[in-house]
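2024-03-11 09:14:02 DEBUG pipeline.ingest accepted 1 chain
2024-03-11 09:14:02 DEBUG pipeline.ingest length=148
2024-03-11 09:14:03 DEBUG pipeline.predict start
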Amino acid sequence: MIVITGKRKIKLDKRLSKLSKGRKFQLGVKIDESMKNVLLKIGFSPDLEPGESVLPAASIGPVCRYNAEGKEIVHKDRPMETAYRQVEWTWEQWAGYYGTETQSKIVDVPYKRYPRTPVLPPSIELTLVEGVIAAKLQRSATSPKRLL
């Protein structure tokens, strides 16, 4: 059993070196009374029944946003490209002697930006297992970054 303590970790290499490559394991945290509000915010039901699994909401923080939505790598060393965003334009159009009508349309507005490469989200789900919240993982060459 590997015990990891503290609030935030920067490196897990020393602890993961004890596991053989390809081995599956669970990373878990004991649940106490102070964590119940956090678990409800993550998306668990108020009952906290064992076996319940949840993909944490992206709105919780940057790590959960990456886990749920992924991210983009911005390549500032490459030339800029043209990208488009949609904007709704609204205006008042004359409609005769006594008034106007509100008109609107959606327009594609071009802008310059650096090219981006999407990074797929890890989508690690958290599961309640008898007083412990755990995530099922597998050790690989990229697992230290994925675990953090």
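2024-03-11 09:14:41 DEBUG pipeline.report The longest strand covers residues 81-94.
2024-03-11 09:14:41 DEBUG pipeline.predict end
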